[in-house]
């Protein structure tokens, strides 16, 4: 049996890499980069933290509990989507500030976008149907 076959047999059934592992590796690199510019004691603490992050990453790659790793990745993807969409929403608010204004519905707290027209306007929330007035 060749080394390649032994290696293939060893990795059979292992979870492998995913977006959470990629994120953990990037975090590890950032921690090590920051640790290079700090004094000795905080540097050792950050290096230890990066070793723990790297160890967890390797543990996830080598794990045979595929279902649990997939659930971890799904939770990470959900959190990542929420954070991304928040920042995209904030970016678009700034990007389109001349065209639109954003307000919350007082009933359901849904974010609503209105074309910018000065004055007081009566509006109806498309989600809950509540009617209210806004001043732009």
Fold and architecture overview:
Helix content is 59%, strand content 15%. The chain has helices at 3-11, 19-36, 40-62, 66-95, and strands spanning 100-104, 111-115, 120-124, 131-135. The chain has 2 domains: 3-95, no CATH class; 98-136, no CATH class. By secondary structure, the chain is an alpha+beta fold. α2 runs antiparallel to α3 (40-62). The strands form 2 sheets. Strands 1-2 form a two-stranded antiparallel sheet. It has a two-stranded antiparallel sheet with strand order 3-4. The mean pLDDT is 92. The N and C termini lie far apart (75 Å). A hairpin with a 6-residue loop joins β3 and β4.
Residue stretches low in confidence (pLDDT < 50, at least 5 long) are: none
Counting H and I runs of at least 4 residues, what is the number of helices? 4
SS class? alpha+beta
- Succession of helices and strands: HHHHEEEE
Strand order of the largest sheet: 1-2
Cα distance spanning the termini: 75 Å
State the domain count.
2
Q: Can you tag this structure with a few keywords?
A:
136 residues, alpha+beta, 2 domains, two-stranded antiparallel ribbon, two-stranded antiparallel sheet, 4 strands, 15% strand, elongated
Short précis:
The protein is of the alpha+beta class and 136 residues long.
Map the helices and strands.
Blueprint: H1 3-11, H2 19-36, H3 40-62, H4 66-95, E1 100-104, E2 111-115, E3 120-124, E4 131-135
Antiparallel strand pairs: 1-2, 3-4
């Amino acid at each position: 049996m060749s080394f390649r076959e032994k290696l293939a047999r060893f990795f059979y059934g292992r979870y492998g890499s995913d977006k959470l592992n990629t994120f953990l590796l990037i975090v590890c690199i950032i921690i090590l980069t920051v640790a290079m510019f700090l004094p000795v004691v905080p540097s050792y603490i950050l290096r230890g933290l990066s070793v723990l992050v790297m160890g967890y990453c390797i543990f996830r790659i080598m794990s045979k509990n595929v279902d649990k790793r997939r659930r971890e990745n799904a939770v990470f993807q959900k959190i990542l989507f929420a954070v991304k969409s928040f920042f995209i929403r904030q970016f678009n608010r700034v990007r389109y500030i001349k065209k639109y204004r954003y307000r919350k519905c007082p009933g359901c707290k849904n974010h609503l976008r209105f074309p910018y027209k000065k004055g007081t306007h009566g509006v109806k929330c498309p989600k809950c149907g509540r009617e209210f007035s806004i001043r732009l």
